[in-house]
Specification:
Order of helices and strands: HHHHHHHHH
Strand content: under 5%
Number of strands: 0
Structural class: mainly alpha
Radius of gyration: 17 Å
Oligomer: single chain
Number of helices: 9
Amino acid sequence: MARMRALGAALPPRDGVAVFNRVYLTVTEEVGRRIGDGSFQDPAATEDLDVRFAARYLAAVDAVAAGRRPPACWRPLFQLRRHPAVRPLQFALAGINAHIGHDLALALVDTCRARRAEPEDLEGDFDRVGALLAGVEERIREDLMPGPDLLDVADPLTHLVGSWSLDKARGAAWAAFRALWGLRGLPELTEEFVERVDESVGLVGRFLLTPLPGG
C-alpha cells in the first residue's frame, strides 16, 4: 500500500496508470480491513495472496520505469496512459482486466506452492474476495462514469464498459489457475499457456482502451 500511495502521489491524476492505481489501492485497503476483522477463513493465506498479487502489478510498473517491456496484458495501459480520448473508466477497467486476467492466476499458483496448499484450500476466501470486489466495482463505475445528463445508451462508452465483466474475468482466472496447477510438472506447456493467456488479456485491454469521441 505504501508503494501504491507513493506512485499515486508522483503521477498526474489523469494519467491512466494513476487512475487504476487509485482503484487498486482502494481495493487493497478494503481487503486489509477485512483481513483484520476476521472476514476470511484463512487470513494469513489471503494476505499472502494479496501481497503476491500486488507485487505483479508493481513489477510491471518497475519494468516500464526501467525501460523494459511489461507483460503483454499491461502494455495497452502503459502505452495509452496519456491518450486524451480514453476516459478514466476505461483506464480503470483495463488495469483490472490485466491484473485479474493474467496476474491473479499466477499469484494463486505462487501462493499454493509457497504454502504447500491445494486450490480448494484457497477457494472459499477467493469467493469472499469476489463478493467484496463486486461492491467495489459498482462504486468504481458510479464514480467514473459520466453523469446521466452526459451519457446515454447510444454512447460508445456504455457499450464498451458493458461488454466486460469482473465476475467472468475472475471465473476465467480461477480456471486458468486450475489449469496451471495441473500443468505444474510440465514447464514447457506451462510457459506456452501463460504466454497465450497474457496475449489474450492484452488484446482485451486494447479493446477496452479504444479512444472514444468526447473523451
